[in-house]
Amino acid sequence: MTEATALYDVPGPRTRHRHLLYGVLSTAVILALVAWILYLLFSTGQFTYTKWMPFEYKGIQELLLRGLGNTLKAFALAAVLSLALGGVLAAGRLSDHRWVRRPATLVVEFFRAMPVLVMIFFIFVALKVQPLPALVAGLTLYNGSVLAEVFRSGVNAVERGQHEAAFALGMRKTQVMVHVLAPQALRAMLPAIISQLVVALKDTSLGFLITYEEFLHAGKLIASNLDYDLPFIPVVMVISPIYIGMCMLLSWFAGWVSRREQRSPKTEAVAVAPAGPGALLPGGEPPTAPGP
């Protein structure tokens, strides 16, 4: 039997019946919505052979694979550079020196407020940078500034007594940050870091606006082909699951890293031997209580 918790009481028979009714009604509504969408797709001829025929050609498949590879390349570069930039800016914001902390804060707040598409266009048009470096630079500046706040918040969330104890042991601030605060903060920061990397992965699709031949750009070329009756919906149905799968893969990787950290010998509890009798006094006999 389910036990009560501090957050809510165990539902009674009427409440469980009402929850079951809500679940059945919600399932029915979702199934009806899916059926309506499928009806619209079939009635507009989205599953005809003409619209799906392009995916049989080797040239179309190579175009999609090349676009997917370019997307992963841009994401890998942006992810690595964003993490590095976020770490540098977070270190600047956590600095005790005002002349370091204030410029770092200004950079973080500026690039967090700037729309990522505006930055990509500015770098591509005004600075005349090639599409891939322009896309990676825009993603790095935006996501790096967001990750800087994630890192700073994670470090500040560690209990204050941790770094006070480290300072009491004679450790320098860099040693405290690297060996004490950062490892503990990483567990709390990991979900937010992965979420921001998922945002960076999805934002790589903005590259098609600056003619970067990434995955969405390849899909756009196929969807705008008049020879196949504008197969826009089939292209969306092919590309969307791949984007969703890549984001789910990132989430799985985050869970794997978290489980590995929990099994790490550095983070496991150390067995403590049971307390034994203390050292004997110089007289050779343990102390005894005085007799009555």
Helix content: over 70%
| H and E string | HHHHHHHHHH
> If you average the pLDDT, what whole number results?
82
Largest sheet: none
Number of helices: 10
What is the rounded distance between the termini?
56 Å
Q: How would the global form be characterised?
A: flat
Structural class: mainly alpha
Radius of gyration, Cα only, in angstroms? 29 Å
Number of strands: 0
Approximate strand percentage: under 5%
Oligomer: single chain
Enumerate the spans where pLDDT stays under 50 for 5 or more consecutive residues. Answer: none
Q: Gist?
A:
The chain is mainly α. Helix content is about 70%, strand content about 0%.
Describe what this molecule looks like in 3D.
The structure is a single chain. This protein has helices at residues 13-43, 49-52, 58-93, 98-113, 116-126, 131-157, 160-168, 173-203, 215-223, 232-263. It is mainly α and 292 residues long. 71% of the residues lie in helices and 0% in strands. Helix 3 runs antiparallel to helix 9 (215-223) and helix 6 packs across helix 8. It contains 10 helices and no strands.
Which helices and strands, and how do they pair?
Layout: H1 13-43, H2 49-52, H3 58-93, H4 98-113, H5 116-126, H6 131-157, H7 160-168, H8 173-203, H9 215-223, H10 232-263
Structure keywords:
mainly alpha, single chain, 71% helix
